[in-house]
Amino acid sequence: MSRVLRTQLQKLHQGTVHTMQEDENVQLRRAQEEDPLRGKVRDWVTMGRAPPLMELRGKEREVLRIQGQFSTELFQIVNGLLVFQKHADRNKGGDAQRICLPQSKMEEVFNLCHSNAVSGHRGINRTTAKFNRSFYMVSTGENIEGLIKICVPCLAKIRSLPESRGEHVPSMTGTRGKNRLTIWSHSPKPPGETDTYYP
To answer: Which end of the chain is less packed: N or C, by CB atoms within 10 Å?
Structure first.
């Protein structure tokens, strides 16, 4: 597990996200430059604009999605790193400076946010929320969902839940105490029906 990402998560909780050491910064910047998508976005930030949509025809879906939301206010280079300046939580103000994570580091960060002893295999929503506090990817949810689907402890937990709860038997009518409630939703109440009727 890289020291860069571990430090990033520790600093996230301390509130000093972007005071990484020089060598950590260089390592992550190099990974961003080598990543095809993040490399393009770094070039766009340097130029101050994204290319028109017509030039991006036939590119990956992520490139098109970033081009649609690109602005030099949202994407910036801070301390040599490409960052996204918007909080995942809309109620928070100020600069977020979430690091645009290269695809090559996704599995490593996933393990920090989901699989370590503190995270405890909390599922898609909680893992995504933890990830989004300090990192940014266009398809975060899809990536995390894909990794959780192959997470062995999560698969074991999912398989054990139905066994502990027993077999699920769906009920077609609701019951409450001794009264029975039937709701006729698609047709008029049949003649002679004695159950309570709510139109």
So the answer is: C
Extract the tokens encoding 130. 């933890």
Per-chain mean pLDDT for the chain: 75
**53 near 67, Cβ under 8 Å?**
yes
Q: How many CB atoms lie within 10 A of CB 153?
A: 11
Q: CA dist 170 to 27, 159, 174, Å?
A: 54, 20, 10
Distances (CA, A) of 192 to 45, 173, 186, 188: 73, 18, 17, 12
Mean pLDDT, residues 125-136: 86
Give mean pLDDT, residues 3-17.
54
Residues 6+ apart with CB under 8 A from 3: 24
β-bridge mates for residue 179, sequence order: 176
What percent of the residues of the chain are helix, what percent strand, and what percent coil, each to the nearest 5? 50, 10, 40
CA distance 53 to 49: 12
- CA atoms of 166 and 144, how far apart (whole Å): 29
Residues 32-68: pLDDT tens digits? 999 988 999 999 999 999 988 888 877 778 888 888 8
Greater pLDDT, 184 or 27: 27
Give the residues across from 75 on adjacent strands: 84
